[in-house]
Amino acid sequence: MSQTAADGSRPANQKTLAAEVPPISKFGLDGLASLLKNDENEQTAFAVGQNLQLMGLDLSEDAKILKTLASPWQETSRLEVEPYFTLPDNILQKNIVPKPEPCDTKILSFLDETLFYIFYTKPRDTLQEYASRELVARNWRYHRDIQVWLTKDSNVEPVLISPDVERGIYVFFDPHNWEKIRKEFVLHYSSVQA
Length: 194
Fold this sequence. Notes:
Blueprint: H1 12-20, H2 29-37, H3 42-48, H4 65-68, H5 78-81, H6 93-96, H7 103-106, H8 112-121, H9 126-137, E1 141-143, E2 148-152, E3 159-162, E4 165-174, E5 179-188, E6 192-193
Antiparallel strand pairs: 1-2, 1-6, 2-4, 3-4, 4-5
Helix pairs in contact: 8-9
């Protein structure tokens, strides 16, 4: 296929092909076509590419070339390129940053206002559930009809009107004004979510 003379020079007709391409088309398709007609040289290799089968690579479908070949011009394998090392124990992430505490244990230390903030700002979230459970543990109850949290005033004992109704002084949490309001209220047990 190669049309070179014994002394390594090219025939005159091949030299003229490259010379015939005008300078404006040298880097276009005409220039590429003239390179392809030339014999294998450095310019052709860079323009067209390398034949990987001639480099001794396993090109079967199961072969993973990327894991073993770092570069076609490098004499080492990819495994030799990446050094083997281990990090010292004193700089590992687990030793620098303490593990976060579980949310359900940390939430016990929050104030009521913080729990209300979590309840109202995290709808349909696990945090809302945790806040709700802690508020119930602190004797707060959610009133379904008026949709506010309330608790009994610890200074005044409520009066039982019927088996499921009582009247007394209750503390309500108003989410609109973000304050606790103390007032007398008739409570139906069926309206309170325990």
